[in-house]
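pasting for the record
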Amino acid sequence: MAEKLKIELVTPYKKVLSEEVDEITASGALGEFGILPGHAPFLSSLKIGELSYKKDSSTFHLAVNWGYFEVAEDKVTVLVETAERADEIDLERAKIAMGLAEEELKKLTPEDKNFRTYEAALERALIRVQVAAKAAGK
């Protein structure tokens, strides 16, 4: 059994992460899950949420948007639409986006064709605020 997991996190635009880590936690479509070295093969879809990993004694956080997570022989492959490290997120911009999405949602009903778009925008902004706050130590 390996003592580390190899994680490769990729978006359509770039490779965001390639590290040897101790533990990974992510938000799957059916709930949050954790992966340790030696985990059985596993495949899950990811929702908008946080992906965190522990390396040595440090924990790192990323905000991710929809994708897939696969574990095979202590290698984890994560394919997502977008991924931002906590220290790369502009907290004020994320708060503004959250406010704008909340205002738009107040004007719409769940039957409106734009409701899901603004609901997803609100969810993304909320996750970005939460992840950025962790980097800021708040």
